[in-house]
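User: I'm putting together a small comparison set for a docking exercise, and I want a reference complex before I start. The sequence is below, and the ligand is guanosine-5',3'-tetraphosphate. Could you produce the 3D structure with the ligand included, as structure tokens?
Assistant: Of course. I'll restate your input first, then give the structure tokens for the complex.
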Amino acid sequence: MKSLTSGHLPSKASLSINGGEFQKELKEAVNRRRNFAIISHPDAGKTTLTEKLLLYGGAIQQAGAVKARGEQRKVTSDWMELEKQRGISITSTVLQFDYNDITINLLDTPGHQDFSEDTYRTLAAADNAVMLEDAAKGLEPQTRKLFEVCRLRNIPIFTFINKMDRPGLEPLTLLDEIESELKLATIALNWPIGSGDLFRGVIERQTRDVVLFSRAERGKQSIERRLKLEDPELSNLVEKDLLDKAIEELDLLEEAGAPMDIELIRAGELTPVFFGSAMTNFGVKPFLDSFLDIAQGPVSRIAHDGPVDPLRDTFTGFVFKLQANMDPRHRDRVAFVRVCSGRFEKDMIVCHARTGKNIRLSRPQKIFAKDREVVEDAYPGDVIGLNNPGMFSIGDTLYTGQYTEYEGIPCFSPEIFCWLRNPNPSAFKNFKKGVNELREEGAVQILYDIDQSKRDPILAAVGQLQLEVVQHRLENEYSVETRVEAMGFQVARWVSGGWNSLDEIGRIFNCKTVQDSWQRPVLLFKNKWNLNQLEQDHPGLELSSVAPVVSGVNPITL
Ligand code: G4P
């Protein structure tokens, strides 16, 4: 039974200032906040761009502090033994910094090739996304996948085309690819003059100023040199043919391109495009300035009874990520909560919507890369880390005041499936505990055979690394050595109509029927071709690549 109101203590805000003043303070805090995540394929330059953004925000003193290299990297990413072994960062972090009176929350996502569901879930907490492309490569697989997740929630997308100092694809080709493949209209806000060795700078669309390319000294903010397009000096600085080509293309865009429309950008239907070079720090500041002008602030989130305004005066938030053993010395578990409305305060007593229990949040943390500090308060758009004694699950809502439960975070379509075997029957208890807890934490999805005699769980992951993490953690945290056995499937689809609609169509071929942790039917296919075949044979069968959201139901356990 859910409690209708939490038994929360009067907040400091309501004790110390009257409602009007509190609303004013909340409104100011909300207006001041912007939150985004970067979506990109490994090597597009996400770390480099992040460094440069932090540099402008004064959050780091020199570039290189985010991703330490070589020996130093080992020290920076010691959260997990596995990270040390592989020299990679698995854990998402949230970076908060101030720039021009705006508090920016940058939700960082794992950059490794074998990315996992964490990356997807982080996007559930983001209000805006920056799509970073390598100019020489254009759209790449990981970017496409992440874009699809943004599209599910119509998140505004800002495109930064990076590495213009290197030979790249034609700028018009890059825009065309976004338009035709992602079905996303584009509006270039600056236009490059040349590329690679011949990269001379950009023409700003709005002012028609030329900003000349210069390489900022490593770790320094760039000094911008700009000239009017009509300035005669330009001919001494930029080759005529390069400038003519850029102007011609820009005129083409003026005639045939989409007009500026902030509403369409905020609806996720039009993406502003910027060309630059993160490494040389060219175009990063103008990008940041425009982004902050156009990006949306913390938006309303959909709860059980409709959208919740961030200006609601009671606190609400949801858990979008759980991380265990972030600091092995403390063996702690952290739940990352996105604040959605009201003001969060340290020591606040909130209600945990799923269980109806009241909890005091006594050690909220702000986490900057590896460092943490205790937060006193937080506002919509911010992310706080809470100590998690095993009580929080992905998607859980916390609230004060009236009962609120946010829509859950969908499970994303896994692409890797394998049996998880426990060769040692005497370790079954630990095996069971580990599998259930890791599922609860969202480390991996667990599916089950519909044949009850086959009790081994099926690990379903979006990235290979998730499997390694699960096995590693089972061994280190639960003392069970496991074996994984590939099943040979690559595609999963949830049957939207449930078991009845499967029964109606009778026997199906070239796929395996399993159940998810909520006993819902899932079909596994060896390849897309088999899936297409089934769709053709049974056009009435509705299939979904994203699991329907569950709320308020307890999953089956091992
Ligand atoms: P990621 O986080 O998206 O995986 O990419 P990261 O920033 O680590 O960048 C990948 C490589 O691309 C790095 O080179 C980085 O220096 C380079 N890079 C990033 N932005 C630009 C750019 O604007 N122009 C050029 N030319 N290169 C860029 P690396 O060789 O892997 O590392 P390093 O030796 O440069 O540190």
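The two ends are 25 Å apart (CA to CA). Residues 1-16, 61-65, 67-92 have pLDDT under 50 and may be disordered.
User: Thanks, that's exactly what I needed.
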